[in-house]
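How a chain folds remains the central question behind the approach discussed here. For one protein, we set the task of working out the structure tokens from the amino acid sequence alone. The sequence in question and its structure tokens are set out directly beneath this paragraph.

_____
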Amino acid sequence: MPGVEALVLSATGDVVSLREFVSGASTYPLLAGLRPDLYRCFMSQVWAHASAQGVSGLIHPETHLTDERAGLLRAQTYRQLARHWQFINELVLFEIDHHVSYGVHVYGYAGHDEVAFDNAAGLFHPDTVTRSRVHDGSGEQPGFKHEGKWDLRPHQSRIQSVTDETLAVWADVLEDDNPAQTRMVYTVNEAALRTLETLSAAPRVGKLGLDFSAGWNEKTDRQAGRFKGSWGPAVWQDAILQGPHLHVSTPFYKSPNATMKHNQDWSAVDLERLAPDTMPVTAYKPTGDPVAYNAKYTHWGPDRSSSARDHYRVAWRAMAANTGERTLISAVIPPTSAHLYTLYCVGGGDADLRTLMSVAASATSLLHDFQVRAAPKSAILKGVFASLPMVSLDHPLINSLLLRALRLNCLTDAYADLWAQCWDDAFLDDAPILTQHDPGQIGPEWTAQTPLRRAVDRRNALVENDALVALMLDVPIDDLVTIYRTQFAVLHGYDQRDYTYDINGRLVPNSVLAVWRKKGDAISVDERTATHTEGHDYVYELPFSTLDREADLRTAYAEFERRLADS
């Protein structure tokens, strides 16, 4: 059409010119090399026009506070800030998506060399921060949710004074070599900040020298003919695992359905009926020559002679669900298996299997999960995992930690070697603290009785694992339960209502719960019967109940403290 060519060229020229102008080093030196977000230009303009006594307030996004490339801009931001209030738009105060985060930024220190600003994160309404500034500090510390609703309660602990020393703690947590430019760590209360300070003093997983693998690329490696879409059970050397296959210390969590309609077309695995020789059901299978398939996969070691597939590995879901039930979701995967890059893994190096299992146990804990979600991100990359704190293998309680991690992860005979090589006779003297409904029998050799299968037994082992890791890293129990209650709102909510167990320790499915909530204990046997997605029928026996994770954490922590004192 006449004139369209000139219109397109003119408009394109305008956009390119604007992009080059706002990202030019001479125009906006703090923004050089960054994506030209216009809000960052407004920040720079405000600072440039500020007098020594001037105060300016802006509401804008704050991606620069977590963007790894925005160090120069971030360092200047910290020096300019007088107050920083971070909000989440869940109450829809602005007519934009309710998930959007933004900040109220008060700038008032033009030319100031030291960092000194008040900071509050996880806010939903401005009234909360207004009242928190005059709060006396009494009462429990708030979090994201309270009694099923967004937590609007004021508290003195919400407001933290950020100084250069605070930036140093953030840098320690994030393994950042430049504290002045460190990314921001978002903590809702003083207990969270205090816990991060404690965790930052511990040795890091990265010091172990473990090797890393991102697995197959779902697009490019598939196009290259390494594998194809093909549903069904797979022997381990043909298994290509994906994120939903595993959950926290659970390498058999879900399996893809044969329909494979979309990325949520998966069904839960029945761990109670899991056969010792069970193979995973996968949506992808290798193609072509097995030797060539293995040769193209990640290899480890100084000369890259050892395939990552030769090792037991700690794998975790790559995607970071920062506000979900859990963020760091990890489990141990066995030798010969491969995975897509929806999972990452570490292993090999100079670490023996007991060391690897100590990493697996630590990564499962709420504290490690909290450290990951304290600095929001889209993916949990190698550096994030390497920055996690490490428990000492010389700690008197290390066998208690390893035993629980092994019984949670070693679900089939694919883990028999791992169990045998990590075995210690001290396991026989380690009694569970919380109730076990199906304790099984353990010995030096793996059997079908080795893993914990009943839902409540696995839940209780994870609670004991959380208490152990906290005690081993010198985090007080009061801070641990505060972290659980205030930082894991979704998990806390599930514990209050959704995670309901029957008298035999089985997790009651929603189909039965819905009827029980209407009829109470008058519910009939037929109504208490449900068929698992794998075809097994279960009768859920009354009474039904939820469990108090906070009380159980305190019970486990106190008993482990007693055992530590005795040792």
Q: What stands out?
A: The longest strand covers residues 81-88. The mean pLDDT is 94. Residues 10 and 16 are 10 Å apart (CA to CA).
